[in-house]
Amino acid sequence: MLIFHNPVHHAHSGRQEMYRGRLVDCHETPARLDYVLVELMRRGLGQLRLPGAPDMGLLLRIHDPDYLGFLATVWAEWLALDPAHAALDVLPSVWPGAGLRRDVRPRNLSAQLGRYAFDAGSPITAGTWEAALAGAACAIDAARALASGARRASMALTRPPGHHAGSDFYGGYCFLNNAALAAQALREAGATRVAVLDVDYHHGNGTQQIFYERADVLTVSIHGDPSTEYPFYLGYADEAGAGAGLGCNLNLPLPAGSGVEPWLAALQTALARIRTFGAEALVLALGVDSFEGDPISRFTLQSEDFLRIGQHVAALGLPTVLVMEGGYAVAELGINVANVLEGFTA
Ligand code: OKP
Ligand code: ZN
Questions:
Q1: What is the pLDDT of residues 167-215, one digit of tens each?
Q2: What are the residue ranges of helices labelled H in the chain?
Q3: Each residue of 247-284: pLDDT tens digit?
Q4: Suppose 259 and one of 146, 166, 193, 300 were both cysteines; which one would form an S-S bond, judging by CB atoms 3.0 to 4.6 Å apart?
Q5: Are strands 281-286 and 320-324 parallel, antiparallel or unpaired?
Q6: What is this model's ipTM?
Q7: Which of 5, 164, 202, 203 is catalytic?
Q8: For ligand 1, atom 7, which residue shows the shortest CA distance?
């Protein structure tokens, strides 16, 4: 399996996120990817590749131009406000919430942050744009590596993650939607129908939003019930898609505390839907925060269970792009991701 590894992911290193009235240390750290890389190499589970230049045309078919412009310039604007900002992360503090207008475009930077961010837990740092862009290139290149049909699977090993980022918003540690970019690249490389299967503990709200009205990309997500779990405001079972995309979104929420049995039952439901949809290629949005030891999630999967996930997903028999999403039990993160790859390739 070719593994497109983001060589500049360290450039994105958030210091703090807002949590229950305090700024706490970020969970989404550079060390995460280092653990995965070490374990994959130790087990000989793939060949590393560097991404090429990002295809900005493809990015613009998934993300809004003003949003991309904002991400590209926000750090410079932040520094221009105050040179002391160099030592601080960018976090929003005001939003166009209830009763306020979303259609105005205030020049004020805080106001712009509130238009594009949906939480106060996703710090932007000096290297966020560089890292996110290289990650997007990993996802696109991993998809294109399958296009020839010569290979069964490829991986985008990157951070920051992507599945919470929508066409024109960020949050949940995500800025560019790598899985959506991979799906779009597969479509443009000739797959008529593509499925995105999101197994991260948190609902992939950004991916759902991006494809919600499209019939050519099926989005399926298995996740903690949003009535108690992040991102709270999307991810319910009654969200089925809209317009031409009606029936092309499937949410399989499970109660916090769920173990591997209900989780694997939901996976079978997901796989059956992907089969009947007639997907010709698959993107696996691979978060391993369903692991019992995960510090911010509440399923109870064990490390061995990730082998079975890889086996079941491989049984679809589809060309597959694995895209790294969440997983925060840093020491076990490498083992859990490597187990999925091992199960997939077994
Ligand atoms: C990103 B991904 C913890 C609060 C949780 C956001 C979680 C984002 C998860 N103090 N805040 O889906 O793994
Ligand atoms: Zn997650």
A1: 999 999 999 999 999 999 999 999 999 999 999 999 999 999 999 999 9
A2: 30-42, 56-62, 65-81, 109-116, 128-147, 178-188, 205-211, 260-277, 305-314, 330-345
A3: 999 999 999 999 999 999 999 999 999 999 999 999 99
A4: 300
A5: parallel
A6: 0.96
A7: 164
A8: 172
With a Cβ cut-off of 6 Å, ligand 1 is lined by 19, 121, 161, 164, 172-173, 200, 202, 230, 287, 289, 296, 325-326
* Inter-residue contact 159 to 324 (CB < 8 Å): yes
Give the pLDDT score at 148: 72
Can you say whether the dihedral through the CA atoms of 118, 124, 130, 134 is positive or negative?
negative
Q: Residue 266's closest CA among 281, 257, 285, 253?
A: 253
Phi, psi of 152 (to 5 degrees): -85, -40
Q: How far is the CA of 124 from the centre of ligand 1 (A)?
A: 15
CA of 197 to the centre of ligand 2 (A): 14
> Tokens at residue 17, please?
């996120």
CB atoms within 10 A of CB 23: 15
- Can 164 be counted among the known catalytic residues? yes
